[in-house]
Amino acid sequence: MKKILTAAAVAAAALLAAALPGRADDLTLSLFQNSTNNLFQSSYPEKDQITSLAFSYAKGFEPFSLFTDGGYSYLYENSSISYYTQQLGLDYVFAVSSKTALYFAAKGAGTLYRSEFSDLNYLAIGGVAALKSYLSPSSILKLNYNFDYRDYRWSLFDYLSHLAYFSVDKYFPSRTTLRADLGWGYKYFLHPFPAPEPAVEEPLASDFVATMGYGGGRGYGGGWGGGALPPPETSGPGAGLQMASVSGLVAQGLGERVGIQVSGLQQWTLSGRNPFGSVDEFYLVENPTYDVFSWNGTAASGQLTVEGPWHTQLKIGYTRFDKEFPGIEAMDLDGVSLGVLRRDKRNQAEARLEKNFSAVSLFFAYAYIDNHSNDPLFEWDGHFLTAGFEWNLNWGKGG
Amino acid sequence: MKRLAIVMALLLAAAALLPAKGRQRPQEHFYSVDSERRIEGTIKDLLFEPRYQDRAPFLVLVVEEKDTGALYRVEVSPAWFFGRDLHKGESVKILGSYYAKDGVDNLIARQLQAGGETFRLRDSRGFPTWRGGPGARKGWRRGPGM
Questions:
Q1: CA of A199 vs chain B CAs: smallest distance (Å)
Q2: Residue A17 and residue B47: Cβ atoms within 8 Å?
Q3: Residue A137 is nearest to which of B2, B4, B45, comparing CB atoms?
Q4: CB A386 to CB B140 under 8 A?
Q5: Are strands B104-114 and B71-78 parallel, antiparallel or unpaired?
Q6: Which DSSP letter does residue B6 get?
Q7: Around Cβ B20, how many Cβ atoms within 10 Å?
Q8: Which residues in B lie closer than 8 A to residue A22 (C-beta atoms)?
Q9: Which of A1, A4, A6 to mutate to test the interface with B (most CBs of B within 10 A)?
Q10: Distance between CA A225 and CA A205 in Å, rounded?
Protein backbone atom coordinates (compact mmCIF):
# COMPACT_ATOMS: atom_id res chain seq x y z
CA MET A 1 0.00 0.00 0.00
CA LYS A 2 2.86 2.35 0.90
CA LYS A 3 4.44 1.66 -2.46
CA ILE A 4 1.21 2.50 -4.27
CA LEU A 5 0.89 5.76 -2.33
CA THR A 6 4.45 6.81 -3.03
CA ALA A 7 4.18 5.87 -6.70
CA ALA A 8 0.97 7.88 -6.87
CA ALA A 9 2.75 10.90 -5.35
CA VAL A 10 5.47 10.72 -7.99
CA ALA A 11 2.92 10.28 -10.78
CA ALA A 12 0.88 13.24 -9.47
CA ALA A 13 3.98 15.45 -9.57
CA ALA A 14 4.58 14.38 -13.16
CA LEU A 15 1.02 15.16 -14.18
CA LEU A 16 1.09 18.52 -12.40
CA ALA A 17 4.24 19.54 -14.22
CA ALA A 18 2.93 18.25 -17.54
CA ALA A 19 -0.28 20.23 -17.16
CA LEU A 20 1.53 23.54 -16.75
CA PRO A 21 1.85 25.85 -19.72
CA GLY A 22 5.10 25.40 -21.57
CA ARG A 23 6.46 24.27 -24.84
CA ALA A 24 4.89 20.98 -25.89
CA ASP A 25 7.38 18.29 -26.70
CA ASP A 26 7.16 14.69 -27.59
CA LEU A 27 5.61 11.49 -26.42
CA THR A 28 7.03 8.16 -27.49
CA LEU A 29 5.15 4.91 -27.17
CA SER A 30 6.86 1.60 -27.66
CA LEU A 31 5.94 -2.05 -27.69
CA PHE A 32 8.55 -4.80 -27.74
CA GLN A 33 8.26 -8.53 -27.73
CA ASN A 34 11.31 -10.35 -26.36
CA SER A 35 12.03 -14.03 -26.34
CA THR A 36 14.81 -16.14 -24.82
CA ASN A 37 15.63 -19.74 -24.10
CA ASN A 38 17.60 -18.81 -20.97
CA LEU A 39 15.92 -16.14 -18.88
CA PHE A 40 18.07 -16.67 -15.78
CA GLN A 41 21.30 -17.08 -17.75
CA SER A 42 22.42 -20.26 -16.03
CA SER A 43 23.09 -23.91 -16.84
CA TYR A 44 19.43 -24.58 -16.03
CA PRO A 45 17.87 -22.77 -19.00
CA GLU A 46 14.30 -21.55 -18.78
CA LYS A 47 12.45 -20.25 -21.80
CA ASP A 48 10.33 -17.19 -21.48
CA GLN A 49 8.80 -14.34 -23.42
CA ILE A 50 8.55 -10.77 -22.24
CA THR A 51 6.17 -8.15 -23.56
CA SER A 52 7.26 -4.61 -22.73
CA LEU A 53 4.94 -1.64 -23.16
CA ALA A 54 6.53 1.72 -22.42
CA PHE A 55 6.09 5.45 -22.79
CA SER A 56 8.51 8.35 -22.70
CA TYR A 57 7.46 11.98 -22.37
CA ALA A 58 9.47 15.17 -22.33
CA LYS A 59 8.37 18.78 -21.94
CA GLY A 60 10.39 21.95 -21.81
CA PHE A 61 10.03 24.59 -19.09
CA GLU A 62 12.50 27.42 -19.11
CA PRO A 63 15.14 26.83 -17.92
CA PHE A 64 14.47 23.12 -17.31
CA SER A 65 12.92 20.28 -19.18
CA LEU A 66 10.92 17.57 -17.53
CA PHE A 67 11.18 13.97 -18.59
CA THR A 68 9.32 10.94 -17.46
CA ASP A 69 9.14 7.43 -18.73
CA GLY A 70 7.48 4.29 -17.56
CA GLY A 71 6.99 0.77 -18.70
CA TYR A 72 5.39 -2.49 -17.80
CA SER A 73 7.08 -5.78 -18.64
CA TYR A 74 5.11 -8.99 -18.49
CA LEU A 75 6.84 -12.37 -18.36
CA TYR A 76 4.68 -15.20 -19.65
CA GLU A 77 6.30 -18.19 -17.89
CA ASN A 78 7.55 -16.37 -14.80
CA SER A 79 4.75 -13.89 -14.35
CA SER A 80 5.66 -13.30 -10.69
CA ILE A 81 8.68 -11.33 -11.92
CA SER A 82 6.58 -8.99 -14.08
CA TYR A 83 7.36 -5.43 -13.17
CA TYR A 84 6.53 -1.78 -13.65
CA THR A 85 9.23 0.84 -13.70
CA GLN A 86 8.87 4.61 -13.63
CA GLN A 87 11.34 7.46 -13.86
CA LEU A 88 10.75 11.18 -13.44
CA GLY A 89 13.27 13.97 -13.60
CA LEU A 90 14.30 17.45 -14.56
CA ASP A 91 17.31 18.34 -16.63
CA TYR A 92 19.06 21.50 -17.61
CA VAL A 93 21.57 22.24 -20.35
CA PHE A 94 23.67 25.37 -20.25
CA ALA A 95 26.18 26.63 -22.81
CA VAL A 96 29.17 28.08 -20.95
CA SER A 97 30.54 29.24 -24.27
CA SER A 98 30.10 28.41 -27.92
CA LYS A 99 32.43 25.45 -27.36
CA THR A 100 31.39 24.13 -23.94
CA ALA A 101 28.08 22.92 -22.57
CA LEU A 102 27.05 21.69 -19.13
CA TYR A 103 24.27 19.24 -18.38
CA PHE A 104 22.55 18.64 -15.04
CA ALA A 105 19.76 16.25 -14.20
CA ALA A 106 17.94 15.22 -11.05
CA LYS A 107 15.71 12.23 -11.17
CA GLY A 108 13.67 9.82 -9.13
CA ALA A 109 12.77 6.30 -10.12
CA GLY A 110 11.03 3.24 -8.81
CA THR A 111 10.35 -0.33 -9.76
CA LEU A 112 7.55 -2.54 -8.52
CA TYR A 113 7.62 -6.30 -8.99
CA ARG A 114 4.76 -8.68 -8.55
CA SER A 115 4.28 -11.13 -5.68
CA GLU A 116 7.36 -13.12 -4.69
CA PHE A 117 9.81 -10.65 -6.21
CA SER A 118 8.42 -7.69 -4.30
CA ASP A 119 11.49 -7.74 -2.02
CA LEU A 120 13.33 -6.20 -4.96
CA ASN A 121 10.97 -3.23 -5.20
CA TYR A 122 12.89 -0.03 -4.85
CA LEU A 123 12.77 3.73 -4.94
CA ALA A 124 15.77 5.70 -6.13
CA ILE A 125 17.00 9.22 -6.45
CA GLY A 126 19.88 10.20 -8.64
CA GLY A 127 21.74 13.03 -10.25
CA VAL A 128 23.89 13.62 -13.31
CA ALA A 129 26.40 16.37 -13.98
CA ALA A 130 28.24 16.41 -17.27
CA LEU A 131 30.45 18.63 -19.35
CA LYS A 132 31.13 18.47 -23.08
CA SER A 133 33.71 20.73 -24.57
CA TYR A 134 35.32 21.10 -28.00
CA LEU A 135 39.01 21.43 -27.15
CA SER A 136 39.42 22.07 -30.86
CA PRO A 137 36.89 21.48 -33.64
CA SER A 138 38.33 17.99 -34.08
CA SER A 139 38.72 17.01 -30.43
CA ILE A 140 36.09 16.62 -27.70
CA LEU A 141 36.50 16.35 -23.94
CA LYS A 142 33.71 14.89 -21.84
CA LEU A 143 33.25 14.61 -18.09
CA ASN A 144 30.33 12.75 -16.59
CA TYR A 145 29.35 12.20 -12.96
CA ASN A 146 26.42 10.05 -11.79
CA PHE A 147 25.04 9.77 -8.29
CA ASP A 148 22.54 7.09 -7.35
CA TYR A 149 20.81 6.15 -4.11
CA ARG A 150 18.53 3.13 -3.91
CA ASP A 151 16.19 2.12 -1.15
CA TYR A 152 15.00 -1.47 -1.61
CA ARG A 153 12.21 -3.14 0.24
CA TRP A 154 14.84 -5.70 1.28
CA SER A 155 17.45 -3.43 2.76
CA LEU A 156 20.27 -5.87 2.00
CA PHE A 157 20.52 -4.27 -1.44
CA ASP A 158 20.35 -0.59 -0.39
CA TYR A 159 23.25 1.38 -1.74
CA LEU A 160 24.73 4.74 -2.58
CA SER A 161 27.00 5.01 -5.61
CA HIS A 162 29.17 7.51 -7.43
CA LEU A 163 30.41 7.00 -10.98
CA ALA A 164 32.65 9.39 -12.88
CA TYR A 165 33.92 9.15 -16.44
CA PHE A 166 36.40 11.23 -18.39
CA SER A 167 36.93 10.90 -22.12
CA VAL A 168 38.79 12.69 -24.85
CA ASP A 169 38.70 11.99 -28.57
CA LYS A 170 40.39 13.12 -31.74
CA TYR A 171 39.16 12.97 -35.33
CA PHE A 172 41.67 12.65 -38.18
CA PRO A 173 41.26 13.55 -41.86
CA SER A 174 41.56 9.84 -42.67
CA ARG A 175 38.05 9.60 -41.17
CA THR A 176 39.46 7.85 -38.13
CA THR A 177 38.31 8.68 -34.61
CA LEU A 178 40.38 7.75 -31.57
CA ARG A 179 38.89 7.94 -28.08
CA ALA A 180 40.27 7.23 -24.62
CA ASP A 181 38.13 6.87 -21.49
CA LEU A 182 38.88 6.74 -17.79
CA GLY A 183 36.30 5.67 -15.24
CA TRP A 184 36.06 5.57 -11.47
CA GLY A 185 33.27 4.45 -9.22
CA TYR A 186 32.45 3.85 -5.58
CA LYS A 187 29.45 1.90 -4.36
CA TYR A 188 28.55 1.81 -0.70
CA PHE A 189 26.25 -0.96 0.46
CA LEU A 190 24.36 0.44 3.40
CA HIS A 191 23.30 -2.83 5.01
CA PRO A 192 25.43 -5.77 3.86
CA PHE A 193 25.89 -8.83 6.03
CA PRO A 194 28.77 -9.46 8.41
CA ALA A 195 30.82 -12.38 7.20
CA PRO A 196 33.78 -14.55 8.07
CA GLU A 197 37.04 -14.06 6.20
CA PRO A 198 36.79 -15.68 2.78
CA ALA A 199 38.73 -18.87 2.13
CA VAL A 200 39.96 -17.46 -1.19
CA GLU A 201 42.97 -15.19 -1.48
CA GLU A 202 42.08 -11.86 -2.99
CA PRO A 203 45.01 -9.66 -3.97
CA LEU A 204 42.84 -6.56 -4.34
CA ALA A 205 40.79 -6.93 -1.19
CA SER A 206 40.93 -4.04 1.24
CA ASP A 207 41.01 -3.94 5.02
CA PHE A 208 37.29 -4.01 5.42
CA VAL A 209 36.57 -7.20 3.50
CA ALA A 210 35.83 -8.94 6.78
CA THR A 211 32.68 -6.91 7.13
CA MET A 212 31.30 -7.97 3.77
CA GLY A 213 29.99 -11.08 2.12
CA TYR A 214 29.21 -14.55 3.26
CA GLY A 215 29.91 -18.00 1.98
CA GLY A 216 26.68 -19.90 2.34
CA GLY A 217 24.56 -21.89 -0.12
CA ARG A 218 23.08 -20.99 -3.49
CA GLY A 219 19.81 -21.04 -5.38
CA TYR A 220 19.35 -22.62 -8.77
CA GLY A 221 16.95 -21.70 -11.56
CA GLY A 222 13.36 -20.64 -11.30
CA GLY A 223 14.26 -17.41 -9.54
CA TRP A 224 16.87 -14.88 -8.70
CA GLY A 225 18.73 -16.96 -6.15
CA GLY A 226 16.93 -15.67 -3.08
CA GLY A 227 17.70 -19.01 -1.45
CA ALA A 228 21.38 -18.09 -1.58
CA LEU A 229 20.91 -15.15 0.73
CA PRO A 230 20.64 -15.18 4.50
CA PRO A 231 17.54 -13.72 6.13
CA PRO A 232 17.28 -9.92 6.13
CA GLU A 233 17.28 -9.48 9.91
CA THR A 234 21.00 -10.31 10.02
CA SER A 235 21.99 -7.10 8.27
CA GLY A 236 25.19 -5.46 9.47
CA PRO A 237 27.25 -2.32 8.93
CA GLY A 238 27.91 -0.82 5.51
CA ALA A 239 30.88 -1.45 3.26
CA GLY A 240 32.21 -0.12 -0.01
CA LEU A 241 33.31 -1.40 -3.40
CA GLN A 242 35.59 0.77 -5.52
CA MET A 243 36.41 0.30 -9.20
CA ALA A 244 38.41 2.02 -11.95
CA SER A 245 38.54 1.44 -15.68
CA VAL A 246 40.42 2.51 -18.76
CA SER A 247 39.17 1.98 -22.28
CA GLY A 248 39.92 2.95 -25.85
CA LEU A 249 38.02 3.05 -29.10
CA VAL A 250 38.96 3.32 -32.77
CA ALA A 251 36.22 4.12 -35.29
CA GLN A 252 36.64 4.30 -39.03
CA GLY A 253 34.21 5.40 -41.73
CA LEU A 254 34.42 3.34 -44.93
CA GLY A 255 32.64 4.96 -47.83
CA GLU A 256 29.29 6.59 -47.23
CA ARG A 257 27.37 3.64 -45.88
CA VAL A 258 29.73 1.62 -43.73
CA GLY A 259 31.31 2.32 -40.37
CA ILE A 260 33.42 0.06 -38.18
CA GLN A 261 34.68 0.40 -34.65
CA VAL A 262 36.74 -1.65 -32.24
CA SER A 263 37.12 -1.00 -28.55
CA GLY A 264 38.79 -2.45 -25.49
CA LEU A 265 38.30 -2.03 -21.76
CA GLN A 266 40.23 -2.98 -18.64
CA GLN A 267 38.48 -2.71 -15.30
CA TRP A 268 39.92 -3.10 -11.82
CA THR A 269 38.41 -3.55 -8.38
CA LEU A 270 40.41 -1.16 -6.23
CA SER A 271 38.86 -2.14 -2.91
CA GLY A 272 36.03 -4.17 -1.45
CA ARG A 273 34.15 -7.13 -2.81
CA ASN A 274 30.60 -8.23 -3.55
CA PRO A 275 28.61 -8.71 -0.32
CA PHE A 276 26.46 -11.48 -1.81
CA GLY A 277 26.85 -15.23 -2.12
CA SER A 278 26.15 -15.11 -5.83
CA VAL A 279 26.08 -12.62 -8.68
CA ASP A 280 23.33 -13.26 -11.23
CA GLU A 281 22.21 -11.65 -14.46
CA PHE A 282 18.73 -12.04 -15.89
CA TYR A 283 17.50 -11.16 -19.34
CA LEU A 284 15.72 -7.76 -19.25
CA VAL A 285 15.08 -8.07 -15.50
CA GLU A 286 17.37 -5.98 -13.34
CA ASN A 287 19.21 -7.98 -10.69
CA PRO A 288 20.60 -5.99 -7.75
CA THR A 289 23.58 -8.34 -7.35
CA TYR A 290 24.98 -7.46 -10.79
CA ASP A 291 26.13 -4.11 -12.14
CA VAL A 292 29.29 -2.37 -13.33
CA PHE A 293 30.77 -2.62 -9.82
CA SER A 294 30.41 -6.37 -9.42
CA TRP A 295 33.28 -7.46 -11.68
CA ASN A 296 36.78 -6.74 -12.85
CA GLY A 297 38.53 -7.89 -16.00
CA THR A 298 38.54 -7.06 -19.70
CA ALA A 299 36.17 -6.52 -22.60
CA ALA A 300 36.95 -6.28 -26.30
CA SER A 301 34.40 -5.57 -28.98
CA GLY A 302 33.96 -4.85 -32.66
CA GLN A 303 30.97 -3.42 -34.50
CA LEU A 304 30.02 -3.00 -38.14
CA THR A 305 27.31 -0.53 -39.13
CA VAL A 306 25.81 -0.68 -42.63
CA GLU A 307 23.31 1.75 -44.06
CA GLY A 308 20.91 -0.29 -46.17
CA PRO A 309 18.29 0.70 -48.72
CA TRP A 310 14.83 1.95 -47.74
CA HIS A 311 16.04 3.78 -44.62
CA THR A 312 17.33 0.67 -42.91
CA GLN A 313 20.36 0.35 -40.69
CA LEU A 314 22.08 -2.89 -39.74
CA LYS A 315 24.53 -3.26 -36.86
CA ILE A 316 26.52 -6.41 -36.30
CA GLY A 317 28.72 -6.73 -33.24
CA TYR A 318 30.86 -9.11 -31.28
CA THR A 319 32.08 -8.70 -27.69
CA ARG A 320 34.42 -10.86 -25.65
CA PHE A 321 34.35 -10.49 -21.85
CA ASP A 322 36.72 -11.93 -19.27
CA LYS A 323 35.31 -11.18 -15.83
CA GLU A 324 36.21 -12.06 -12.29
CA PHE A 325 33.78 -11.40 -9.44
CA PRO A 326 35.53 -10.23 -6.26
CA GLY A 327 34.14 -11.93 -3.18
CA ILE A 328 32.18 -14.53 -5.16
CA GLU A 329 33.51 -18.04 -4.77
CA ALA A 330 33.03 -20.56 -7.56
CA MET A 331 31.00 -23.51 -6.29
CA ASP A 332 30.07 -26.90 -7.58
CA LEU A 333 26.45 -27.72 -8.28
CA ASP A 334 25.97 -28.87 -4.68
CA GLY A 335 27.02 -25.46 -3.40
CA VAL A 336 30.43 -26.56 -2.15
CA SER A 337 33.18 -23.99 -2.58
CA LEU A 338 35.81 -24.77 -5.19
CA GLY A 339 38.31 -22.50 -3.43
CA VAL A 340 38.67 -20.00 -6.25
CA LEU A 341 36.92 -16.81 -7.25
CA ARG A 342 34.26 -17.13 -9.92
CA ARG A 343 35.59 -16.25 -13.35
CA ASP A 344 33.54 -16.04 -16.57
CA LYS A 345 34.64 -15.84 -20.19
CA ARG A 346 31.85 -14.73 -22.47
CA ASN A 347 31.44 -14.49 -26.23
CA GLN A 348 28.53 -12.36 -27.35
CA ALA A 349 27.38 -11.85 -30.96
CA GLU A 350 24.61 -9.45 -31.85
CA ALA A 351 22.74 -8.15 -34.87
CA ARG A 352 20.25 -5.34 -34.94
CA LEU A 353 18.12 -4.04 -37.78
CA GLU A 354 16.26 -0.73 -37.66
CA LYS A 355 13.78 0.58 -40.21
CA ASN A 356 12.51 4.13 -39.98
CA PHE A 357 9.22 5.47 -41.25
CA SER A 358 8.02 9.05 -40.76
CA ALA A 359 6.99 8.73 -37.10
CA VAL A 360 7.44 5.03 -36.47
CA SER A 361 10.62 2.97 -36.15
CA LEU A 362 10.75 -0.81 -36.31
CA PHE A 363 13.46 -2.80 -34.55
CA PHE A 364 14.62 -6.38 -34.79
CA ALA A 365 17.53 -7.66 -32.73
CA TYR A 366 19.14 -11.02 -32.10
CA ALA A 367 21.93 -11.95 -29.72
CA TYR A 368 23.71 -15.16 -28.97
CA ILE A 369 25.76 -15.48 -25.79
CA ASP A 370 28.13 -18.29 -24.95
CA ASN A 371 29.27 -18.05 -21.32
CA HIS A 372 32.03 -20.21 -19.85
CA SER A 373 32.66 -20.16 -16.12
CA ASN A 374 34.68 -22.02 -13.51
CA ASP A 375 31.37 -22.17 -11.63
CA PRO A 376 29.29 -24.85 -13.41
CA LEU A 377 26.03 -23.02 -12.66
CA PHE A 378 27.17 -20.28 -15.03
CA GLU A 379 28.29 -22.51 -17.85
CA TRP A 380 25.53 -21.61 -20.30
CA ASP A 381 24.53 -20.27 -23.68
CA GLY A 382 21.40 -18.48 -24.79
CA HIS A 383 19.51 -16.95 -27.68
CA PHE A 384 17.79 -13.59 -27.28
CA LEU A 385 15.34 -12.21 -29.82
CA THR A 386 13.59 -8.84 -29.82
CA ALA A 387 11.08 -7.24 -32.20
CA GLY A 388 9.11 -4.09 -31.69
CA PHE A 389 8.33 -0.54 -32.63
CA GLU A 390 8.53 3.02 -31.34
CA TRP A 391 5.93 5.61 -32.24
CA ASN A 392 6.80 9.30 -31.83
CA LEU A 393 3.91 11.65 -31.21
CA ASN A 394 4.54 15.40 -31.26
CA TRP A 395 2.36 18.41 -30.83
CA GLY A 396 2.71 22.10 -30.16
CA LYS A 397 5.30 24.29 -31.79
CA GLY A 398 8.14 22.69 -33.68
CA GLY A 399 11.69 23.61 -32.99
CA MET B 1 11.29 5.06 1.66
CA LYS B 2 7.81 6.64 1.58
CA ARG B 3 9.23 9.88 2.95
CA LEU B 4 11.95 9.84 0.32
CA ALA B 5 9.42 9.46 -2.48
CA ILE B 6 7.21 12.25 -1.22
CA VAL B 7 10.14 14.64 -0.81
CA MET B 8 11.32 13.77 -4.30
CA ALA B 9 7.86 14.35 -5.76
CA LEU B 10 7.49 17.72 -4.02
CA LEU B 11 10.93 18.88 -5.18
CA LEU B 12 10.17 18.01 -8.78
CA ALA B 13 6.78 19.66 -8.69
CA ALA B 14 8.26 22.81 -7.14
CA ALA B 15 10.98 22.96 -9.76
CA ALA B 16 8.40 22.66 -12.51
CA LEU B 17 6.49 25.59 -11.02
CA LEU B 18 9.44 27.96 -11.25
CA PRO B 19 8.54 31.08 -13.25
CA ALA B 20 9.96 31.47 -16.72
CA LYS B 21 12.70 34.03 -17.13
CA GLY B 22 12.11 36.93 -19.45
CA ARG B 23 15.35 36.39 -21.34
CA GLN B 24 15.91 37.88 -24.76
CA ARG B 25 16.08 35.18 -27.39
CA PRO B 26 16.94 35.27 -31.04
CA GLN B 27 14.10 35.21 -33.55
CA GLU B 28 12.93 31.64 -33.99
CA HIS B 29 12.61 29.72 -37.24
CA PHE B 30 10.60 26.54 -37.34
CA TYR B 31 10.90 23.56 -39.59
CA SER B 32 9.10 23.78 -42.94
CA VAL B 33 8.95 20.75 -45.20
CA ASP B 34 8.31 23.11 -48.14
CA SER B 35 11.82 24.53 -47.89
CA GLU B 36 13.76 21.28 -47.61
CA ARG B 37 17.18 21.15 -49.23
CA ARG B 38 19.97 18.55 -49.43
CA ILE B 39 23.60 19.51 -49.10
CA GLU B 40 26.86 17.55 -49.04
CA GLY B 41 30.01 19.01 -47.58
CA THR B 42 32.62 19.17 -44.86
CA ILE B 43 32.29 20.39 -41.27
CA LYS B 44 34.35 23.55 -40.78
CA ASP B 45 33.33 24.47 -37.24
CA LEU B 46 31.04 23.44 -34.39
CA LEU B 47 29.22 25.70 -31.93
CA PHE B 48 26.75 25.57 -29.07
CA GLU B 49 24.13 28.27 -29.70
CA PRO B 50 20.73 29.25 -28.25
CA ARG B 51 18.14 28.76 -30.96
CA TYR B 52 14.68 28.48 -29.42
CA GLN B 53 12.89 29.90 -26.44
CA ASP B 54 12.55 27.37 -23.60
CA ARG B 55 15.14 25.14 -25.23
CA ALA B 56 18.64 24.06 -24.38
CA PRO B 57 21.42 25.44 -26.58
CA PHE B 58 21.77 23.65 -29.90
CA LEU B 59 24.73 22.03 -31.60
CA VAL B 60 25.30 24.06 -34.77
CA LEU B 61 27.64 22.95 -37.56
CA VAL B 62 29.28 25.26 -40.03
CA VAL B 63 29.34 23.17 -43.22
CA GLU B 64 31.07 24.03 -46.49
CA GLU B 65 29.08 22.64 -49.43
CA LYS B 66 31.20 20.41 -51.63
CA ASP B 67 30.07 21.67 -55.05
CA THR B 68 29.54 25.38 -54.46
CA GLY B 69 31.79 26.20 -51.52
CA ALA B 70 28.83 27.93 -49.85
CA LEU B 71 28.79 27.96 -46.05
CA TYR B 72 25.72 26.77 -44.15
CA ARG B 73 24.96 26.97 -40.46
CA VAL B 74 23.28 23.67 -39.72
CA GLU B 75 21.17 23.27 -36.60
CA VAL B 76 21.50 19.65 -35.46
CA SER B 77 19.85 19.12 -32.07
CA PRO B 78 20.01 20.32 -28.46
CA ALA B 79 23.64 20.31 -27.36
CA TRP B 80 23.43 17.06 -25.47
CA PHE B 81 20.91 15.05 -27.36
CA PHE B 82 22.94 13.85 -30.27
CA GLY B 83 24.51 10.53 -29.45
CA ARG B 84 27.41 10.66 -31.87
CA ASP B 85 30.16 13.23 -31.54
CA LEU B 86 30.90 15.22 -34.70
CA HIS B 87 34.23 16.83 -35.53
CA LYS B 88 35.78 19.34 -37.89
CA GLY B 89 36.79 17.74 -41.18
CA GLU B 90 34.05 15.10 -41.23
CA SER B 91 32.13 14.70 -44.48
CA VAL B 92 28.39 15.01 -44.00
CA LYS B 93 25.21 14.82 -46.06
CA ILE B 94 22.32 16.78 -44.67
CA LEU B 95 18.63 17.01 -45.47
CA GLY B 96 16.99 19.97 -43.78
CA SER B 97 14.75 23.00 -43.89
CA TYR B 98 16.43 26.05 -45.40
CA TYR B 99 16.11 29.68 -44.40
CA ALA B 100 18.30 32.73 -44.87
CA LYS B 101 18.90 35.24 -42.11
CA ASP B 102 21.20 38.26 -42.12
CA GLY B 103 22.82 37.00 -45.31
CA VAL B 104 23.66 33.63 -43.77
CA ASP B 105 22.36 30.33 -45.18
CA ASN B 106 20.83 28.15 -42.47
CA LEU B 107 19.52 24.59 -42.40
CA ILE B 108 17.46 22.93 -39.68
CA ALA B 109 18.65 19.34 -40.12
CA ARG B 110 16.14 16.52 -40.40
CA GLN B 111 18.56 13.82 -41.46
CA LEU B 112 22.33 13.72 -41.15
CA GLN B 113 24.69 11.18 -42.67
CA ALA B 114 28.24 10.89 -41.33
CA GLY B 115 30.82 8.17 -40.77
CA GLY B 116 28.76 5.53 -42.56
CA GLU B 117 25.68 6.13 -40.42
CA THR B 118 22.45 8.05 -40.95
CA PHE B 119 20.93 9.90 -38.01
CA ARG B 120 17.24 10.79 -38.04
CA LEU B 121 16.88 14.03 -36.10
CA ARG B 122 13.28 14.84 -37.03
CA ASP B 123 10.39 12.99 -38.56
CA SER B 124 9.05 13.75 -42.03
CA ARG B 125 6.89 16.55 -40.61
CA GLY B 126 9.90 18.18 -38.98
CA PHE B 127 9.10 17.20 -35.40
CA PRO B 128 12.15 16.36 -33.28
CA THR B 129 12.93 12.72 -32.58
CA TRP B 130 15.89 13.27 -30.27
CA ARG B 131 15.69 12.39 -26.60
CA GLY B 132 17.91 11.37 -23.70
CA GLY B 133 20.84 13.13 -22.08
CA PRO B 134 24.00 11.63 -20.60
CA GLY B 135 21.87 9.96 -17.96
CA ALA B 136 20.35 7.86 -20.69
CA ARG B 137 16.96 6.40 -20.08
CA LYS B 138 16.47 2.69 -19.82
CA GLY B 139 14.71 1.11 -22.72
CA TRP B 140 14.42 -1.96 -24.79
CA ARG B 141 18.16 -1.96 -25.33
CA ARG B 142 18.75 -3.14 -21.79
CA GLY B 143 20.19 -6.62 -21.66
CA PRO B 144 21.79 -8.29 -24.64
CA GLY B 145 21.73 -5.96 -27.59
CA MET B 146 23.53 -2.93 -28.90
A1: 33
A2: no
A3: B45
A4: yes
A5: parallel
A6: H
A7: 12
A8: 54
A9: A6
A10: 25
Yes or no, beta carbons of B54 and A23 under 8 Å apart: yes
What is the mean predicted confidence (pLDDT) over A276-299?
Answer: 92
HSE of B106, CA atoms in CB hemisphere, 13 A:
16
Contacts 24+ apart (CB under 8 A), B70-73: B70/B105, B71/B44, B71/B104, B71/B105, B72/B39, B72/B41, B72/B105, B72/B106, B72/B107, B73/B104, B73/B105, B73/B106, B73/B107
What is the CATH number for A151?
2.40.160.40
Instruction: Give the Cα separation of A383 and A157 in Å (integer).
Output: 29
pLDDT per residue as tens digits for the range A127-148:
999 999 999 989 999 999 999 9
In 3D space, the residue among A299, A301, A298 whose CA is nearest the CA of residue A260 turns out to be: A301
Q: Which of A83, A392, A393, A395 to probe the B interface (max B CBs under 10 A)?
A: A392
Of B6, B28, B143, the CB nearest to A6: B6
Q: What angle do CA A82, A86, A90 make, to 5 degrees?
A: 165
Measure the CA–CA gap between A46 and A44, rounded to whole angstroms.
7
> Distance, in angstroms, between A211 CA and closest chain B CA?
25
What are the structural domains of chain B?
Answer: 33-120 (2.40.50.140)
Instruction: Inspect the interface and report whether the beta carbons of A17 and B138 lie closer than 8 Å.
Output: no
Residue B138 to residue B146: CA distance in whole angstroms: 13
The residues that bridge with A36 in the sheet, in sequence order, are A48, A384
Q: Is B20's CB within 8 Å of A62's CB? A: yes
pLDDT: which is higher, A175 or A166 = A166
Residue B140 has a pLDDT of: 34
Q: Which has more pLDDT, A48 or B144?
A: A48
Q: Which domain holds residue A268?
A: 2-394
Is the pLDDT reported for residue A184 higher than 60?
yes
A46 belongs to a structural domain: yes
Among A146-160, A206-220, A293-307, the minimum mean pLDDT is found in A206-220
**Residue B121, SS3 per DSSP:** coil
Closest-approach residue (CA) in chain B for A62: B54
Q: Which of B5, B133, B139 sits opposite A128 (nearest CB)?
A: B133
Residue A399 lies in a domain: no
**pLDDT 10s digits, B20-77:** 333 344 456 778 888 999 999 999 999 988 777 656 788 899 999 999 999 999 999 8
Residue A388 included in any domain: yes
- Smallest Cβ–Cβ distance between A87 and the set B13, B131, B137 belongs to B137
A210 is a domain residue:
yes
Cα–Cα distance measured from residue B16 to residue A106, given in angstroms and rounded to the nearest whole number = 12
Q: Which of A25, A128, A253 sits opposite B115 (nearest CB)?
A: A253
Contacts of B1 in chain A (CB under 8 A): 2, 6, 123, 151, 153
Yes or no, beta carbons of B30 and A62 under 8 Å apart: no
Query: By CA distance, what is B42's nearest residue in A?
Result: A173
The strand pairing partners of A273, in sequence order, are none
Tell me how many domains chain A contains.
1
- Which of A207-211, B93-97, B117-121 shows the lowest mean pLDDT across its residues? A207-211
